[in-house]
Structure prediction request, 203 residues.
Amino acid sequence: MIIKRLFDWVVSLVLLLILFIPMLLIALVVKYDSRGPAFFFQTRAGYKGKPFKIYKFRTMIDGAAKVGTKVFTSADDPRVTKVGRFLRNTSLDEIPQLINIIKGDMSLVGPRPTLIYQVDNYSAYQRRRLDMLPGMTGWAQVNGRKSLTWPEKIELDIWYIENWSLGLDLKIMFMTLLRTITAKDIDNAGTADAISVQKEDVS
Prediction:
């Protein structure tokens, strides 16, 4: 885990330096496209269920959680902005999570972080997916993502934790890059996982 943490920190720092200007441009475009902040912050469950604030570029109208279906979104949700839909389709809205990785809240690879109320409903077996830092991408994300049921995602996340290696992380990162480029398994609604329904949380 020391090797994984060091790898995460070095790669994330390098990526932040490389992507600083693109991130600034994205933030400006988000602000120009619709009223509200450029960034979106939400409390998620981290390692062992410890709460932390996840960072993303805002992809929905300001105050979206108070209107419509509130915390859930669908692929055609009208609250998603034009720029936001592009960011979601390309996963560029996730880039600010590199800051979460530098802070130690997340890892480059791991089970996707879920909402607190979801974790409160976990069984003892499901809580095993909290035994590693949550990731920007993960084994479930490159093996079906939105086509998977929640139990299938749980099984993949736990398999990843039990079989972790630096080589596996590199493989997942490469597979994620390919899927992002080809838009394969990219869910227009977002990237957070729901427990029993294929819906996403507001971001």
